[in-house]
Amino acid sequence: MNVTELREHICETYPDLCPLFSLEFGDGVLTVDPERLRQAAVDLHNFGFDLLGMVTAVDRGDAFELVYRLRSRVLSVGMFLKCRIPRDEPKAPSMVDLWPAADWHEREVYDLFGVVFEGHPNLRRMFLPEDWKGHPLRKDYVDDNIIRRPDYF
Amino acid sequence: MAFVSPPEGPRENVSAGIALTSVDALLNWGRGHSLWIMPMGTACCAIEFMATAMSKFDFDRHGTVPFIDPRHSDVMVVAGTITRKMAPAVVRLYEQMPEPKWVVAMGNCAVSGGIFYYDSYSVIRGVDELIPVDIYIAGCPPRPEALEDAFLQLRNKIKTESFVKGVRHTADHELPLLGHRKAAAHHDDAAKTAEPESAEEACS
Description:
Oligomer: heterodimer
Largest interface: A-B, 13 and 9 residues
Distance between the termini of chain B: 33 Å
Strand order of the largest sheet of chain A: 1-2-5-4-3
Strand order of the largest sheet of chain B: 4-3-5-6-7
Largest sheet of chain B: 5 strands, parallel
Low-confidence stretches of chain B: 171-183, 194-204
Strand content of chain A: 25-35%
Largest sheet of chain A: 5 strands, mixed
């Protein structure tokens, strides 16, 4: 199944998701609001997307953009699920019950971006020490230990 | 160490010749030729370390045996990037090694932080911030020959030590292991602000 067929199938099955579906660099991208993120994930899971490749986040300045990479073995197609959440209150529903692979990925996003995944069974820091202050991949992260790269490089 | 032939006289009790040596030379010879390695491999340098230990390069013939146990090892080879989360474990393993012990910093990450020197929030800039280092090997990663050469250099260094006189060339163990380099940097700053002659003496 290619992306065009995927779009047609999604529009047939879930008409409310159809206007949110777009193409970016040849990949299908479903961009949803935070309120609809959980329901969209459930729908896509029921639709046949049984593998979660990764969860990551992008610091867009005013918001964090969560990115879920989904893959379907049955349909043989992949797509992205994206969601912008407000930066001052970064919360998102956890997807661990749908895709167990989300467990460590959401811990990583929590560790490096500070996004709180509600319903996660074990939301602790993943890579950094437990007593670390701050979330380093945020653009406004400051740390006295960092040596900034000089301009002449 | 010198080998001499048996003296003249009744030879039936002296069947194989006599070796004359000093305690230091004998100890250093033994230590230098049986360096058991604690591989502290955390990144891609560890792959090169494994290649060195495998049959093509085969550094077992130098008596350097990789042994995954700090309590039985003489040399810690820090092969890879050390992060701030890994740092306490490195210090702990170093402290578990019995004296005498040496450290080889293999690769740019272990020497200075390497490509993670700038703009990194998590990488230790050189393992000598944590533990005293004897031999530094540059490279990203170094060739297996460089690692073999490091052990030959370390053997030369061990030859200059003296068990009897208590001469060791590792860094001062009275310094706290963490923050060891910060103390040295502070010392350098103090030397710069002092008289020019004394600064020259400090450099020399």
